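does this look right to u?? magnesium ion version
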Amino acid sequence: MKKIKGIIFDLDGVIVFTDKFHYLAWKDMADSINTYFDETINNRLRGVSRMASLEIILEKYKGKPLSQEEKEALAEKKNTLYREYLKTMTPNDVTQEVRDTLTELRRRGYKLSIGSSSKNAKFILERVDLTSYFDAISDGTNITKSKPDPEVFLKGAEFLGLRPEECAVVEDAYAGIDAAKDGGMLGVAIGDATNYRRSDYCLTTFSDLLKLFK
Ligand code: BG6
Ligand code: MG
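got this back:
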């Protein structure tokens, strides 16, 4: 573990839990076009970009073909409602365990970055008062390919001034672990991703990071 100098964190499902907001906003959008949508389909959207998420939801769509403009309008409608839900978030939505762990990792000399597919990442970090805990933010606004492509993490490493092999990624999604591994980084799993065979290390709880990164 000696060569690891930077840790890149996925946001949704690792640091904050916005799944329910994504679900409610996508459900509203799906209902508006009479399309079946449930929690199981919502789980497939983890780490996937907004437009790619819409395509997954449209697998169940049975209406007349939608133009690109109509699809963009549906994604926009979802995002407007999603951001209304995000506005209800406060610093209490981040646990003290997460704050203390991030602070201690930095004190130990690790550089920290966010690596999120979300274009709302900076907005969320501001809402929960966590922006200042990170040295860099790589998110949906600086990438062209979303996870499982490694781009968001490679950018995170670059923003930290580190090589990929000097970075570890903390992820809850299989697509995120694939992105980390394909980018040449260490894949540290939490939540769902702990069941994935490509994960290098599994965390039971966030503060286990302090045992991994001394
Ligand atoms: C990821 C979420 O972090 O961001 C996905 O896991 C989401 O579910 C993606 O689709 C894009 O988010 P946004 O905020 O740009 O619509
Ligand atoms: Mg996630």
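The mean pLDDT is 96. idk if thats expected tbh
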